[in-house]
Give the backbone structure.
Amino acid sequence: MNPIDDQDLGNRIAAASRDSDSVGDAADATRFDRVVNLIVEIGGVAIFATIVGIVFLNALGRYALGFTFIWGDEIVLSLLPWLGMTGMFLAIRRRAVIKIDYFANLLPTPVAKLLQVLASVFASAMFAWLAIVSTYYVGFFGNDRLIYLPIEKGWFMSALVIGPALAALAYLIVAWQDFRAGRASR
């Protein structure tokens, strides 16, 4: 392969990467969708920056200064569910959730579209169930305090309720959009 072909391949890979990164904020996305995505992205970046900052300060303190913030690991572990939930919510809204649709693609288009709507409704129901079950867990353990800081675990554990509830809502919106798109194409 000559250098021109390598350059072309690199450009095509870069373009595909850009397209997949911006799938949720495409030109057909509403202003409301872009604002919601931006708010969640800012929250996710803030959580990630906090985690990275605490880990960096702990490593610096431990290896360069000879002390550590004992509460740092506790905060990092407590923020991870929120980070995961922001990523999950954005993946659903951007239709970037990993799925295997090999067999659905073998079906006739109307059947495949109906199956896609039903799958989103089913996913919404499962996330709603997870949110309901998680309320019991948070209710039972949420008043416990972190070991090193006087903060109730419920502040962090609420991600296990809020995240699935928002994911259920996001899947319902996806199902509605797919249903409307299917009706419009008839």
Summary: The CA atoms of residues 9 and 27 lie 26 Å apart.
